[in-house]
Design goal:
The protein is mainly α. Helices cover about 45% and strands about 5% of the residues.
Length: about 750
């Protein structure tokens, strides 16, 4: 490949000079230097002959210096275009004069080589430049074209950094959470009932509406709202089995996150008791246990009991431990049963005892990857891949099909693996994914504690219940419909349909979708009920409705008892929609009161919140979240539409998204988000990946997310494509597990 001659440098515009550090032409610095000197010799020799110069040395130096001076930037040899911009626009707040905001000290970064050693910092820099959070609005801004080059260079450096440093974040060894444990025990024994009732399962299915194989959601569905309706506790379950405490959702994460799921000696003892209470329950009997005949029923009198026990335990332990068991382990469990039988215990009781021991074993309770001798990353094995896939989509153990494919070494075959993903997406067990991921992603547990002031919002309450009992189901039904029908994820922003009960329709007031009046007659209790609730699919033509960001559940749970909370709403949008959570506020910042203090009654909420932006350490976050939160100010604390406040001041919701997209109505705000739908696809992909891998995402994951978002966009942003791309991504199929990580799991 032939590069440009030195004399041609002067003809390059500043932003494409091939020798400059901000060049996007891809010239390698060493290649450039070699060609500089080769070309200089040729150019200077020609000039010397032309003008009969006997000593061309001074001319050689002069031409070289001239060429370098024509290239913009003082760091052409160091390639420090990035560092120059950091020093010019960021150092004032991040290192200069001892000022270090956000614990980011850029004074220590002298060149790109130093920057490459800090992938976490590069990840943060990419985020704040991409979301245009930095520099702050009142500081000199980076020119748009330069910002694009800056971001591209940062992304390039991040990719280079993660390729040379230890790659993916290690997924910590972790126990199953309560939801996964319930599912795993059900699947292992093929139970026809739940192990125990799960309050975290927010929506109950009635009359079998969830049919993913059909590819179509019913127009009318019957559901129940567990957290706010105690009658939903009444369901088939094992008598006498008490659940262990609920595992809470991690901040900006999920309840399956590894660093939150420890197993203390006390909890370990509880698991031993729990396993025994399950197999000793009065309801643990043939009609409720699908594997009863194959596992618990005594063999024929002439059977070789030892061989029979061993034959029954091998597939049982393989399923429970998610991989074929070693002979020594099989010997130990078989020996336990035989000793029980020798001591006079009947066969079924002995098998119940070994089953209880199995579901109390760390090999059952813990989710982990096998250790590796490598320092970096390597592909997970077939059994680990089967387990990751099943716990992601089904919240439970791999089934026999997955384990058989893993044992045959066929699961990694591209067509086979793709077929298994499709099979799992059509299976009814996909309901478990819908019972776990969307409620946590949307942080819907917050609505349980939402209590609007009864004086200001009396219609929110009916009988001894609240409208939120119906509100919380609307976004969950939207999610299930988008998933089953494989619709674009843009429906989450601006859907053309929704699901409403009669009570919820009335609760929306001006925003009702004009559901058939026959469905909303009678008193409020009869309209919605508190046990089995009827929801109907209705078209959305008014763009103030539709999607997740403007539904009544989100508006209510991000408000206080008497007023909206734009900061809370903005933080919710930044976290949930764009996966870019703001940092927590300083501890000494006072909360804004529900009511304005004396003398401020005439102010709008935006005017009252102005003082929060005056603090330098608050300004950056408010620039990020305020436009998002105030965009929703037309929705009152229970999601009703308003145009004026109680003090007769007009609601001001205008703003600019990412300093680029201006909006003055909720429809324009949705358009602004849809203009950034690639960011949303990437953000939702990050949420799904974090849920799938049960950990926070690291720098290396960001490269994969870019590819996931690109592939999803290429298929019209369909949600199943997004799910598949997460599963097919390198982070999902790779592990980084030092040898000591598996030490605990090796004990039974």
């Amino acid at each position: 490949m032939q590069g440009p001659g030195v004399m041609e440098v002067a003809r390059y515009p500043q932003n494409v000079c091939p020798f400059s550090s901000n060049a996007s032409s891809g010239y390698d610095l060493q290649w450039v230097l070699i060609h500089v000197f080769i070309t200089l010799r040729q150019e200077v020799s020609g000039i010397s002959r032309m003008f009969s110069i006997t000593n061309p040395g001074p001319l050689f130096v002069s031409v070289l210096l001239s060429a370098l001076l024509l290239c913009p930037g003082r760091s052409v040899f160091a390639g420090d275009f990035v560092v120059d911009l950091l020093q010019k626009h960021c150092l004032q707040c991040h290192g200069e004069d001892g000022k270090v905001k956000g614990k980011v000290n850029l004074l220590e970064i002298r060149n790109t080589a130093a920057l490459l050693e800090h992938p976490e910092l590069l990840k943060e820099l990419v985020a704040v430049i991409d979301f245009e959070e930095m520099p702050p609005e009142d500081e000199p801004q980076i020119e748009p074209e330069t910002r694009k080059q800056f971001l591209a260079k940062l992304e390039q450096l991040l990719e280079e950094s993660v390729s040379t440093n230890e790659s993916f974040t290690r997924t910590p060894i972790r126990r199953m959470n309560r939801f996964q444990y319930n599912n795993a025990v059900i699947d292992l024994f093929d139970l026809k009932c739940n192990v125990f009732t799960l309050p975290e399962r927010m929506m109950r299915e009635h009359k079998g509406y969830f049919k993913p194989a059909s590819g179509k959601m019913d127009d009318t569905v019957n559901v129940g709202s567990r957290p706010l309706g105690k009658s939903q506790m009444i369901e088939p379950r094992l008598l006498g089995v008490a659940a262990f405490p609920q595992d809470l959702r991690a901040e900006h994460g999920y309840d399956n996150q590894g660093d939150h799921l420890s197993l203390s000696p006390l909890l370990m003892e509880e698991f031993l008791k729990l396993g025994q209470s399950i197999t000793r329950s009065k309801d643990f009997e043939p009609k409720n246990v699908g594997i009863w005949r194959a596992f618990f029923l005594p063999p024929d009198s002439d059977a070789d009991v030892a061989a029979e026990v061993r034959a029954r335990l091998a597939p049982f332990l393989t399923r429970a431990f998610r991989r074929p068991v070693d002979e020594s382990v099989l010997d130990r469990y078989t020996g336990f049963v035989l000793r029980q039988l020798e001591s006079g215990v009947e066969f079924t009781s002995a098998m119940k005892a070994v089953a209880a021991a199995t579901i109390s074993s760390p090999k059952f309770l813990y989710l982990y990857d096998r250790s590796s001798e490598l320092k970096g990353s390597e592909p997970v094995d077939d059994f680990e891949l089967a387990s990751r896939l099943s716990f992601f989509l089904w919240g439970s153990l791999p089934d026999k099909t997955l384990l058989d494919l893993a044992a045959a070494g066929k699961l990694r075959d591209k067509e086979v693996f793709g077929g298994e993903i499709d099979r799992m997406l059509r299976d009814r067990k996909l309901k478990r994914f819908c019972d776990s991921f969307p409620a946590q992603w949307l942080q819907l547990e917050r609505i349980i504690s939402s209590v609007p002031d009864p004086h200001h919002f009396p219609d929110f309450y009916f009988s001894k219940y609240r409208d939120s009992m119906h509100m919380m189901l609307e976004p969950l039904l939207l999610f299930e419909t988008v998933l089953i029908e494989n619709l674009p994820i843009t429906q989450f922003i601006d859907s053309d349909f929704t699901y409403r009960s009669g009570l919820l329709e009335e609760a929306y007031g001006e925003l009702k979708t004009r559901l058939d009046p026959a469905q909303v007659t009678g008193d409020r209790v009869n309209q919605g009920g508190v046990t089995v609730l009827r929801f109907d699919r209705v078209p959305v033509t008014d763009r103030r409705n539709g999607g997740l960001i403007t539904n009544a559940a989100v508006m209510t749970m991000t408000s206080g008892p008497e007023r909206t909370q734009p900061i809370t709403r903005g933080a919710w949008l930044a976290t949930v929609i764009f996966n870019n959570p703001p940092k927590p506020p300083p501890a000494d910042v006072p909360a804004l009161g529900e009511k304005p203090p004396e003398g401020e009654e005439h102010l709008t909420l935006r005017e009252r919140l102005t003082r929060h932006r005056e603090r330098a350490d608050c300004k950056g976050c408010h620039e990020q979240i305020d436009p998002l939160g105030f965009a929703l100010e037309n929705y009152d604390p229970i999601g009703n539409w308003r145009t004026i406040y109680a003090n007769d001041r007009e609601v001001d919701m205008e703003g600019t998204l990412f300093r680029e997209h201006e909006f003055s109505s909720i429809a324009e705000f949705k358009d602004a988000i849809l203009a950034e739908k690639d960011r949303f696809a990437r953000g939702l992909g990050g949420h799904l990946m974090s849920f799938a891998l049960a950990r926070e995402l690291g720098p290396a994951d960001q490269i994969a997310l870019d590819r996931i978002a690109e592939a999803t966009a290429a298929d019209e942003y369909r949600i199943q494509t997004l799910l598949k791309e997460v599963i097919l991504s390198e982070p999902f199929q790779t592990k980084a597990n030092p040898k000591q990580a598996a030490a605990v799991a090796s004990r039974q």
